[in-house]
Amino acid sequence: MTHCETLDQGTSAFMKWLRSYEKDSISTNTYENPIILKKFSKSKYCLLHDNNLGREIIVETYDGVPRCTSCDKDDCGHVAFTILVEQKYDNDGIILD
Fold first, then answer.
1. What is the reported pTM?
2. Which of 21, 51, 57, 82 has the smallest number of CB atoms closer than 10 Å to its CB?
3. Are 43 and 64 in contact (CB under 8 A)?
4. Contacts 24+ apart (CB under 8 A), 15-18
């Protein structure tokens, strides 16, 4: 996988990140952790690091709809990862920002 183009790839990246012991590790081992969460502001934005692309990605949320500023899409893997991060924080009862 070169990068997270599809919602399914983003879901897979989230599951790998969730199981990972080094959740904040920027690495060239993209199989283990293709995307990491750098910062999350509920219903505002999510700052990710895409280890496959080797750069930071911002997913901004407008009126409840996330959109990747890098891919300029609302249905890429970065968006799927962001949606799942938001669901995780909601389910865990963690309040941010």
1. 0.87
2. 21
3. yes
4. 17/81, 18/88
